[in-house]
């Protein structure tokens, strides 16, 4: 999807004709996560780029394609070479799939990957941070973001109008 959007995106006027007005969906999310340059020689800030490197829109899309292929190859390797209980029916002893267990394992691993991405890339510990802009989206830059600790308690403790106070009977 990102490669398709890059093929149809017109970066000539990023202020009056931004990507979200052109119907882009994936590229704005990539920009919010800190990707600002393209192999096409343009930047989201309006400047020209001579060497965007691997962490450009096309580079990140390609990295995700390669990563998904490696995950598929890892799944095939584990299916063939590992004799795990999730691949064997306990009653018959024949090969089968324990789908809830497989789902749980993959849910855990994807949670670890998402937490690692947020903890290292977004906060700036290992990575640039994310795109932070003004309320109107006109200016911005990539910078690390401090995590909001205990943000749910501040949300729950504020006065929410008609919901606050005793519940009518």
Automatic annotation (TrEMBL):
The keyword Membrane applies. GO terms for cellular component: photosystem II. It comes from the Eukaryota. The chain crosses the membrane at residues 61-82, 103-126. Its main location: membrane. The lineage of its organism: Eukaryota, Viridiplantae, Streptophyta, Embryophyta, Tracheophyta. GO terms for biological process: photosynthetic electron transport chain. One of its GO terms (molecular function) is chlorophyll binding. It is found in: Membrane. This is Uncharacterized protein. InterPro entries: PS_antenna-like (IPR000932), PS_II_antenna-like_sf (IPR036001). Pfam families: PSII (PF00421). It is a multi-pass membrane protein. Keywords: Chlorophyll, Chromophore, Membrane, Photosynthesis, Photosystem II, Plastid, Transmembrane, Transmembrane helix.
């Amino acid at each position: 999807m990102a490669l398709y959007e890059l093929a149809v995106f017109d970066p000539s006027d990023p202020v009056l004709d931004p990507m979200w007005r052109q119907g882009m969906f994936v590229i704005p999310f990539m920009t919010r996560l800190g990707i600002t340059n393209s192999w096409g020689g343009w930047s989201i800030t309006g400047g020209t780029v001579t060497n965007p490197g691997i962490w450009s829109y096309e580079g990140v899309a390609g990295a995700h394609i390669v990563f998904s292929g490696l995950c598929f190859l890892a799944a095939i390797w584990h299916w063939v070479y590992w004799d795990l209980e999730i691949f064997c029916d306990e009653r018959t002893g024949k090969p089968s799939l324990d789908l809830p267990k497989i789902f749980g394992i993959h849910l855990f691993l994807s949670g670890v990957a998402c937490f690692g991405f947020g903890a290292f890339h977004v906060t700036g510990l290992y990575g640039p941070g994310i795109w932070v802009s003004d309320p109107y989206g006109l200016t911005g830059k990539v910078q690390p973001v401090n995590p909001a600790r205990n943000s749910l308690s501040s949300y729950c403790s504020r006065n929410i109008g008609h919901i606050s106070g005793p519940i009518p009977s």
